[in-house]
Amino acid sequence: MARIFFNGQAMVGGPFHASVADVLIGPVTTAPGYRFFSIGDVCPGLHPDPAVDTAIEGELYDVDLDHLRDVVLPGEPRELELGVIKLADGSACLSMLLARGEAEREVHREITEFGGWRAYLATLGRTA
């Protein structure tokens, strides 16, 4: 089993939540130090940045590694990669991060100011 922070479409109410619903631990936030980007308004990606003091909302799950490998990761876009983040409580967990070089490409909309995917989607008149 692996603890993983989801902050987009796998959260409660999202279209991919059914694949992880039974292993939800609960809502959490990252520790400060993350920027947040929208990838084509389809999914979000975290980007570590020690120069910022923002924390991002999400949900923590305890996912079987086989399920992560076989079900979750194959559905992730190429702009994201699996990494390790720090949560507000100081613990570490897995999360999908912007892949190396993606932030520098400057093609993804920064949505850090919204603090989470749901708040950003609300500005678009969407819930998922």
Main features:
about 130 residues, alpha+beta, Hypothetical upf0131 protein ytfp, five-stranded mixed β-sheet, three-stranded antiparallel β-sheet, 3 helices
Judged by helices, strands and strand pairing, the structural class is: alpha+beta
> H/E element string?
EEEEEHEEHEH
Shape: globular
Q: How confident overall, as mean pLDDT?
A: 95
* CATH class division: Alpha Beta
Outline the low-pLDDT stretches.
none
- Number of beta strands: 8
Number of helices: 3
Name the helicity range.
10-25%
CATH fold field value? Hypothetical upf0131 protein ytfp
Strand order of the largest sheet: 2-5-1-7-6
From the alpha carbons, calculate the radius of gyration and give it in angstroms.
Answer: 13 Å
Q: How many separate structural domains?
A: 1
Describe the 3D structure:
The structure is a single chain. This protein has 128 residues and is an alpha+beta fold. It has one domain (2-123): Hypothetical upf0131 protein ytfp. The chain has helices spanning 65-72, 102-105, 117-123; strands at 2-6, 24-29, 34-39, 43-48, 57-63, 80-86, 92-98, 109-110. A 5-stranded mixed beta sheet has the order 2-5-1-7-6. A 3-stranded antiparallel beta sheet has the order 4-3-8, with no helix packed on it. A hairpin with a 3-residue loop joins β3 and β4. It is globular and about 35 Å long.
What would you say about this model in short?
This protein is α+β, with helices and mostly antiparallel strands and 128 residues long.
Secondary-structure map:
Blueprint: E1 2-6, E2 24-29, E3 34-39, E4 43-48, E5 57-63, H1 65-72, E6 80-86, E7 92-98, H2 102-105, E8 109-110, H3 117-123
Parallel strand pairs: 1-7
Antiparallel strand pairs: 1-5, 2-5, 3-4, 3-8, 6-7
